[in-house]
Amino acid sequence: MARSRFTNKVVLFLVASAIALLATYLFWSLSPEIKVLLNERMGASPSPSADTIVNVVKLFLVGIVGYLFVRALNALFFGLAFRLKRIDAPTLIRNIFTIVAFTILFLIAFTFLFPGVNLGALFTTSAIFGVILGLALQDTLGNFFAGISLQADRPFQVGDVITVGAHRHTGVVEEISWRAIKIRTFQNHVVLIANSNAAREPIEVCPRDNLNARVVFFNTLYTDSPAKTIHVVREAVREADNVSEKVTPIVRIRDLGDNGVDYEVKYWLEDYAKYNDTDALIRQRIWYAFRRAGLNFAFPTRTLHVERRRGGELRDGDGGAIAERLSAVDIFAPLSGDEITMLAQAAVRHVFAPSETVIRAGEPGSSMFVVHKGRVRVQVSENGRPRTVATLNEGDFFGEMALFTGEPRTANVLALEETEVLEIGHAAMKRVFDTNPDLVESLSFIMAERRQGLASQTDSTTISSDSSAGILSAIKRFFGLHQ
Ligand code: CMP
């Protein structure tokens, strides 16, 4: 098909050349007679205009012959270069060759036929001609020179995939002419981007002889193991068509998303122009591989945790452990099982990170704490430096001073490690005090002891029964208990 078209073209060219040559030859040999005829028609004396008319026609005919000659030369020269050296000259170079060769031939013919006309002067003196030409050819020349610079720079070649232009057109380069870059998009549309526009825009080039990469995204449920997912997807992708064997695909976690774990697979293509098909094939392979391996895609989901609470039930699933912990606290030893359960229900669990402050000296407080898990340090500030007063372990309590007296917190309490504490509020303690008046007494003694520990180490005060009695009446006052 292509061959017969080529033959047709050659035959057509030969016929056109023969006609042009014949016409030129005939006109040339008959030109004296034509001149005489013209002179007779236009007037008796030989007129210069008859000469001019004949020469213009000669120039026209020579122009046609010259053009055909240059085309033949072009085909011969570049066809030969392609045959011998496998160099496929770009259209732009061919066009420039044609224009230059034709202009030279035309100028030679012109000076031969019109020896009296000074061509140089004609061009240089005509300012108006220059302005008109410049304005008319502004865009054309811009494209032409941009095309030349593209050819010189050779940022891409025919066959490469490029993304270019304000609308980010992507396609395979088909031709770079003196006016535009012609690309064929993946929808089989032809897009022409003027060279001057292309020269101004960033162009993304994926060269044909380069290992270009693509990234495809997918996701899994949080319950699916990343190590397994990565292995399964990598093996599925590397076997897909058009995926280069030279580089192993990379599968990695991109994000921990709302619906699942987001992954990306990066792979390298043998033929980048087929990336749409290959991306689709890879997604398909991932689907089948997931099926076989029991992996699941994540789709928008919400998991609702419904907490059902009935009256009298412990707030925490771990209620038994809390009650157990509270019953082991020495000051709560006199409490009955029901009272412990009541306290456990009222207790709120908090977790603190290592070094986090549980309570801060000077702040108001209306609850006490029991160390459930971990350890805390009681610190006071002395001369601007922290002094450790005590370290409390699991089963110890703190924060009772502010709770029972209504005074601000006397010390800082910090978690020494990840620590879980049980917070018991004012109301729950009051209920316990109402039924256990002895408890107030034992507490007041402990508090008096702790107060002494808080005093400067240089103080050598001993626990006096007075201070304990003072605390006792302060607690009773605060909780409105009988004195
Ligand atoms: P409160 O004053 O409410 O806040 C700081 C807490 O640190 C305080 O209650 C006590 O529970 C605790 N505390 C203060 N001094 C000591 C101490 N010497 N030994 C143990 N704990 C203390």
Structural class: alpha+beta
Number of strands: 16
The helicity comes to 40-55%
Which band does the percent of strand residues land in?
A: 15-25%
Radius of gyration: 49 Å
Bound molecules: adenosine-3',5'-cyclic-monophosphate
| Strand order across the largest sheet | 4-3-2-1-5
Detail the poorly predicted runs.
311-315
Overall spatial form: rod-shaped
Our measurement of the CA-to-CA distance between the termini, rounded to an integer number of angstroms, reads 118 Å
Number of helices: 15
| Overall residue-averaged pLDDT value | 84
- Describe the sheet with the most strands: 5 strands, antiparallel
3D architecture notes:
The protein is α+β, with helices and mostly antiparallel strands and about 475 residues long. Helices cover about 50% and strands about 20% of the residues. It has 15 helices and 16 strands. A hairpin with a 4-residue loop joins strand 7 (about 250-255) and strand 8. Helix 1 packs antiparallel against helix 2 (about 50-85) and helix 8 (about 225-240) packs across helix 9 (about 275-295). The radius of gyration is 49 Å and the shape is rod-shaped. The site of adenosine-3',5'-cyclic-monophosphate has 17 residues, from strand 13, helix 12 and helix 14. Adenosine-3',5'-cyclic-monophosphate (CMP) binds near residues 359, 365, 389 and 399.
